[in-house]
Give the backbone structure.
Amino acid sequence: MTDAARDIFITGLHNTHALELQALQIMGRQVERLENYPELEQILRRHIQETEGQRQRLEEVMGRLSESPSAVKEAVQGFVGNVAAIAHSVASDEIIKNMLANHAFENYEIAAYKSLMVMGEMAGFSNLTGFKQSLDEEVAMARQVGDLVEPITRKFIEIGARGESAKI
């Protein structure tokens, strides 16, 4: 493993680990508030568990490279995740904003894992099966969230049409 490729791979590991913390913060805030959308709550709860596993897989690779998560990146990404979740909470169409953001975020994570796998390969790291598992989980979640955009939008409108609070 060349020093430059190793350094880039380690940066990618730190970034992806912090990104998964941001995901946990966002999903955790949403799950706390969901009442009218149990179909979304169910997939978010499952993906929270998957995300914790993804962070563990990243930590295992970091450990093999004598690295640990970046406290600074973790703090920043955790803060950003909380701010993003709070920012949507004041919108009258919070659930719609969350759905759009969740779909975009899952696709961002897919790209992050694809990039991380290339970094690992080019750095000479041979065991990328854990990253492939994480990528597959993100692809499945992106599909599930994407599939819920239309039904949740319809439900949001129907609840609002009845004069009830459809916010979350």
